[in-house]
Amino acid sequence: MSVTKDFLTQVHQLYQQLQKHDAQQTDRLLRYRSIEPESAHLLGMLIRAQQAQKILEIGTSAGYSTLWLVEAAQSTAGRVTTIELDLERSLQARAYARQLQLDAYINLLTEDALIFLQQCSEQYDFILLDAERDAYTQYWPYLMQILKTKGGLLVVDNVLSHASDVEEFMHLVQENMQFTSVTLPVGAGLLLVTAH
């Protein structure tokens, strides 16, 4: 099942709307900071190529990237669990998913990602990390445990646009010989991490 024209039209309109909102905000934390469309498109392709079924997103925001993950998950008979700390943003994401009739494929949690990761006993085929970057080093020990060892893929956004913010995290990933990683110059920069 390929991406439909209707889906592309609706997510494009949503992206424009979220970008317009962000342009009016001076405080970074009030912005939605959605993933770039080309990155979102690539995420969908990776899920399809990998045939990922158990998908985790850390950092829902208003749900733009979530829609792309879920749209791809439909074709793999997969399901997306997405975590957002801000209740208002969770509700927005839920509303957008309902609008596109994708809410049946989402488990949307409003909680602290670190607590979720500490308590998580499941393994995921595909993980998107796009949250507050200063927490990534804390997340890493738990991400290693929940990323499926055979064919699991962790994707981290903003590794080129905010290279200094993720420098310590990148170092932790690269020095761990259990994992291999590559940085793609797509959007704000995507780091792809997989177990050997």
TrEMBL record:
Keyword annotations from UniProtKB, A to Z: Methyltransferase, S-adenosyl-L-methionine, Transferase
| Key word S-adenosyl-L-methionine present | yes
The protein's matches in Pfam families, at most eight in alphabetical order, are given as:
Methyltransf_3 (PF01596)
CDD domains for this protein: AdoMet_MTases
**Alphabetized PROSITE patterns for the sequence:** SAM_OMT_I
Picking any one GO molecular function of the record gives:
O-methyltransferase activity
Q: What is this protein called?
A: Methyltransferase
Which species does the entry assign this protein to? Acinetobacter pragensis
Q: What is the lineage of its organism?
A: Bacteria, Pseudomonadati, Pseudomonadota, Gammaproteobacteria, Moraxellales
